[in-house]
Amino acid sequence: MLQQLTKDVKNLTTDIAKFISKESKNFDRNKVEIKGLNDLVSYVDKEAEQQIVKVLQQLLPEAKFITEENPDFKQKTKADFHWIIDPLDGTTNFLHGLPIFSISIGLMKGNEMVLGVVHEVNKDECFSAYKNGGAFCNGEKINVSTTKKMSNALLATGFPYRDFDKVPYYLDIIKEFMQHTHGLRRMGSAAVDLAYTACGRFEGFFEYNLNCWDVAAGTLLITEAGGKVTDFSNGNDFIFGKELMASCDIHHEMLAVIQKYWKK
User: Where are the beta strands (DSSP E) in 110-261?
Assistant: First the structure.
């Protein structure tokens, strides 16, 4: 079931990517809505989500939804299956004409991710995985980096756009990573950061203030590509726990730096 379902979801994201790409060419920034502090949304996000939900309801009628743009789909229910969707991860990039944004669709069974698809729109790269099936990019198998030392790593992160109380701790973490790696990148889409880590372009990714729809699909890409995902406490509360670290064999080194400075 999961193999065919993954194929169907990949086809869906290909269609949605075409819609988003077309809209990006002539997007009117006056049509932007503000949901909260630095939290932006457009008709493109909303229309993409509606199209995604409509198709997924047909593919797996018994599943419920957790999505970014529909307030009725914000919370996990008692259903066996939940689709966790971000129709346009990297909305701020999209609105400013920056070419890093993606579609993220994950399927959770109980408390476990069993399917994940991240489609980066601009390079038209579709990253996919299902439980015990490996991870792929445009049909080619991918694996996390073979780098063994943090000193040889390129890392990705994100910056908070609200809830700035922990910024001093975060900046200390960033400072140490800057001094002991090949560098840090801030792409603006957590789903892309995870996909790029899964295929070895980054050795690791860390961020806080994340939502489940930002990371659900990408975390399965990481584990199926041979990587590791934890929260900042080295635990498993990374889908709904608002903080996440994903990496290859440098996980213990990255975790040591984060735990040195991070305060709850």
Answer: 112-120, 125-130, 135-137, 140-142, 154-157, 183-185, 204-208, 228-230, 243-247
Digit-coded pLDDT (tens) for 56-107:
999 999 999 999 878 677 778 889 999 999 999 998 899 889 999 999 999 9
* Domain harbouring 221, CATH code: 3.40.190.80
User: Beta strand pairing status for 39-41 and 64-67?
Assistant: unpaired
Strands laid side by side in the 135-137 sheet? 64-67, 81-89, 102-109, 112-120, 125-130, 135-137, 140-142
Number of domains forming the structure of the chain: 2
pLDDT by residue (tens digit) across 186-240?
999 999 999 999 999 999 999 999 999 999 999 999 999 999 999 999 999 999 9
What are the tokens at 183? 């560098």
Tokens of 235: 């635990």
Domain final residue, candidates 79, 108, 142: 142
Structural domain boundaries enclosing 79: 2-142
List of residues 6+ apart from 24 with CB closer than 8 A: 44, 94, 97, 121
